[in-house]
Model the fold of this input.
Amino acid sequence: MYRNLIPAFIFIFLGSITVSGQPGASSSEIYKDIEKLGVLGSVLYVAAHPDDENTRMIAWLAQGEKVRSAYLSLTRGDGGQNLIGPEIGPGLGVIRTQELVEARKIDGGHQFFTRAVDFGYSKSPEETLSKWDKELILKDIVWVVRSFKPDVIITRFPPDSRAGHGHHTASAMLAEEAFKAAGDPNRFPEQLQELEVWKPKRIYWNTGRWWYPEMTEDEEGIISLDVGGFDPVLGTSYAEIAAKSRSMHQSQGFGSTASRGPQPEYLLLSEGTSSKKDIFEGIDLTWSRIPGGGKVQPLVAHILQGFNINDPSASVPAMIALRRVLTGLPDSYYKSIKLKDIDAVILKALGVYTEVYASQPLHHPGAESEIQVRIINRSKTPIKWSGFSIEGASYDTLMDVSLEYNDPARITIQARIPGNTPFSESYWLKDKEVLEKLAAIEATKPENDPVLHGNFAVQIMGETIMYQKPVQYRWNDPVMGEKIRNIGIVPPVSISMDESIYLLRPGKSTTINVTLESLTGKATGSLRLQMNNGVSISPEAYDFSLSKTGEKVSFEFTMAPGKDFRDGQVSAAVETGDFKYSLGVKEIDYDHISPQLMFPKAVSRVIQPDLQVASHKIAYIQGAGDEIPKALRRMGLEVDEINAEDFKPEQMLRYGAIVLGIRLLNTYSKADALMTDLMHYSKEGGTVIVQYNTTMRMRAEEFSPYPISISRNRITQEDAPVKLINPKHPVLNTPNKINLDDFNGWVQERGLYFPNSWDKAFEPVISSQDPGEDPLEGGILVAPYGKGYYVYTSLSWFRQLPAGVPGAYRIFANLVSLKQPLKSEGKSKKNRDSINSNDHGK
Done:
């Protein structure tokens, strides 16, 4: 039965070891953890992005070799593409961060980052290091090396052009520099107030025959490892673990099939002492490396020898004896690490389970919350619950409560969130100046610390073990069952503007709808809009009153441009109680990661491009996910968003143009059949616009009426010079007259995965190139087909249109407005030299 503990007094924790997380594991996991107690060693794996890590290597190190392993990703991947939703930029970085966190939970590694920003594809390390603050990023890497103390560092990439991406090359270059700098007391000496210099034994490049075809296992400096072994304790191979870990990278479409049998990996020594067969050659991985540690190893062996799979708690007396020996050792890095580890193993072996659940998921600073606390001992070993505390809570509790087998004890607490608690924004999304001032220990952790912790103290055989459990919220999902998340700190009211971009027409007013939603209960206050220039807004403000969490209210403002207005921004601000802010609250929620909060500024861009559009109806078939349909509606077009699976051939002819979302040909399993129907639609007079796809996992063999070949070529400079190949082409003239000014103000890049050859039926419209490279002409390819048109475009519309780039709106309006037969005004050399026309339409 539940026993309610009557409040009596507050218990304060002083000077103890803290174990984070939820104890509880199977007997095989507990046995594996005990094995790891006897191994003292660590390896740091370094690369540039989420998904760059070798999960087979990390799983083999963490589970097979039983050393502490970690992945250091220099960036959070926010400059890439998203295969599961519309989030790009910071939102994508939040997703990919959590995917790495979940991956490490599976393969057993730790996760670190630096402050490097993924600004998109980079063609050289020189460009990368010119955009990153090299010294700041190096400082972060050195901090990780000095704090994690790896015996071995492994880089995913070589420090040269073979890495294929400027970020990749830079990650290896910086890792090699940090390998030396971490042991130099003159480099980043301020870190030595908390840490000490550390010199790893060696650094390897995790090479392979795809990079180094002539490599042999017998070559000087090469070590070959088989990381595909089977672990009988865990009942799986390290490669199978790795596949599950790799499959967490869902936003990149990296679901992996498990492989079994030998899995060779190759390491090439970059610097440090050489080794012949073993990456740990010459490194003592036992307790003998610690002064006085020689007596520990036999105790670990004794626990393993006597381990009872049917009753792990039977090993607790021996674990307590080992803990006392560890406590008596001189202070050291591994003493601190292993004390936390053994406390965690003891709690797991006893089946101790704790809950610290708040009554609601979101709170504003200064709010009060009811918190339910429960603890249960699921072993026959006597345990006492000797104390509990929460930061900011005012309560008392009984002491020395005996926890009998499977008999839960609980208390209810009224806790107050400190008034200065910041909103739960991911710390790396703070202003650049704030982020640069963070200490490296804060800037290298994977995610925010939980808002509040419950601090438990339990007494076991005369020893007091203290550990933490984050305050969380639990609910039941009708499909997924029990779901748990950390509580979040939010403003009392979320502000949501109906558009992120407003397109104004000269002399015409526009309506702005602003919606307020209560996030934490009752809220009253005022709402106003502010515009930076050239626009009048009415009314100036509204008063609002919300009575409960989840209640929404919308307000309508009118915005009228002045005579000379071109572009600007409008923001919405709320005053309620002691809070004054201009923020929305967005939740990122996918099944494979924990829910995450973002706080986008309640600011929208306002533009007034000279824009004309055709009046016909548009169909948009979503691919990997983007926000282009919103942009088309802003232009004044009628847009139907249609699922590819549900799009019937007889529906197509009702549309003047059909646009395919980004990477549809990579994500839709029946893309071949869809493209056959679309080619028929085009032949009958429709316009088909296909946006960029990648060469990997193409689901359609024939996606064009004429041959076309896609490459991995990119134009990474957003301001790369543009040439209008044929200024008289309708795409550059109807209904909007396009000029070079329309390519100003683009963001991150021009485009990606450009075609590199095409049939002479296609006419290229523009060309552009990064500095020092040949022009790429495949950004917009247009071909008449029957009565209609087929367009393939690799320009990054999915970035430009949501960013409100005026020229992008004008050009895309011309693409969807194609109606009349195109008259060629000349062909480019690449077009003239392309393969012969061959009608592939069905």
Observations:
- The longest strand covers residues 552-561.
- Residues 374 and 752 are 53 Å apart (CA to CA).
- Residues 1-21, 820-842 have pLDDT under 50 and may be disordered.
- The two ends are 71 Å apart (CA to CA).
